[in-house]
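Entry: Lysine--tRNA ligase
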Amino acid sequence: MTDASAPSTAPAEPTEEEVSEQKAVRLAKREKLNESGVEAYPVSVPVTTTIPAVRAKWGWLEADAVSGETVGIAGRVVFLRNTGKLCFVTLQSGDGTRIQGMISLAAVGEESLAAFKEFVDLGDHLFLSGEVISSRRGELSVMATEWKISSKAILPLPNVYSELSEETRMRSRYLDLIVREQARDMVRTRAQAMASLRRTFTEREFLEVETPMLQTMHGGAAARPFVTHSNAFDTELYLRIAPELFLKRAVVGGIDRVFEINRNFRNEGADSTHSPEFAMLEAYEAYGDYTSIAELTQSLIQNAALAVAGSHVVTWADGTEYDLGGEWDRISMYGSLSEASGILITPQTPVAELQAIADREGVSVHLPNHGKLVEELWEHFVKGSLVRPTFVLDFPVETSPLTRAHRSIAGVVEKWDLYIRGFELATGYSELVDPVIQRERFVEQAKQAAAGDDEAMRLDEDFLRALEFGMPPSGGMGMGIDRLLMALTGLGIRETILFPLVK
C-alpha cells in the first residue's frame, strides 16, 4: 500500500484548447451522472466533521493504526491517483488543510470503485465516509466505505503545486484562494486585524456607525470623486471620498466617540499603495486633539499587530522583520524639511522661493501654492529616509482645510501623517470646529476648484449649519485598512484586498 503525494515535477499549465477539451469531458460526466439518477450537485451530503478537526483529533496515530471512529468529511480534490484495486485522493478544506482518502475494492465494491475512477476529477468537491486510519507510511487517512461527488467541477484547476501568475491571482481570486496558502492567510489576517480594531474602540467606549456612501456633495478629503446619477431623485450623486463630514455631524449630535469602517471611492490612479476602492477607518473623539488621537492610532495598530502576529514585531512576506513596538518617532514637517534640504523653510517662506527650490530639484507641483510646494518638497527630501514608524507633525494650512490652526505656530495646522514602511498609513487632526473659519476655508477651496483643481472641496452649507449648532473640541483620525494590512504583512495593496479592481 502506497500513499498519495505531490508530483515531483509540476506539469505545465493547460492551454486554452486543452481546457476546452477537459470542460467538454467533464460536462459529459455531469450529464451522465444526472441521467443515472446520481446528482452532480446534491443539496447536501452527510458531513459529520471537518478535515482540520480530524487532523487535530487523530494526527497522533502511529503508522498502520486504526482509530475505530467513522467520520463523514468533504473537501476539494487536489490530488488523485487511480490504481488497480486501490485509489488515493487528497481532499483540501477551505483553510487549506488536507487529508488523504483511500477507496479500495474491498471496502466499496467493484461498481463503486469503477464509478470513482470514471467520474471523479481534480477540483471536484468530494464526500467520503469511513474509518480514520494511519497508513503504513504514517499518513493520516480516511478509508472510505462510501463516497459521493458533492459538487462537480466543470473547469480544471490550475496546477496546485506551481505559482499562479499575478494576473490570474488578481482576476480570479477564487483560484488564488484554492491554490495559494498566502492568499488564504491574508483573509484570516485581515479578519483578525479588523476584530482587533473594533475591540480597541469598544474598550475606549467608541460607538460604530454607518454613514452614506451616496452623497449629494462630496467632501472630507482632497480627492476626485466618482459621479453617478439617481433616477429616483433625478439628481447627480457622488460615491463618497471620505465619511468625515457625516461623522462630525454625529459628534455635533452628541455621539462623543464615534468611528466607522467602510468603503471609500476615489476616481484617481492605481498603484502599489492606491486603489480606487478601498476600506477606510475614521474616528472622532470629543475633547481630544491630534496628540490624544495619535496615541489612539498607535494603540490601534500595535494591538492589531499583537492579534495577527502575537508580537509588535511583524514578519513581512519577504522575511523582513519590522518593529511596531515602543513609542513612535515624532518630527515636524518644516523642521525635518529644513534639516534634509539644508535650507531654512518656514510657514512664512515665500512661494517664489519654494518654487525656485522645486525647479532646482525637478519637483513638479500642479497649481502650486505654499502648502502644496512644502508638502511636495518634503516628500522629495524627507519621505524616503523614514524607516521607523513616524508621526510627521504640523502641516501647511493651505492643504488642510478641515483642520484647526496650530495653537502656537502661525501658518500651520495641528495635523499629523503617520508613515510606516515609507508610505502614509494614517492621518490625524485637531479638528476645526469654528463654523466661521470653516466657511472661510471652504470659500478658498471653492476658488481653487474654479481655478481647475479637481480635488478641491465644495462649500457644504448643511455641514456648516451643523457646526453652527456647536461641535465640541475634538481629535480625529483616518487610516486605510488595506494599508494597515500592508504594514502588517509587507504585501502590496492589491494582495491585501480580497477582490481588487482590475482593468
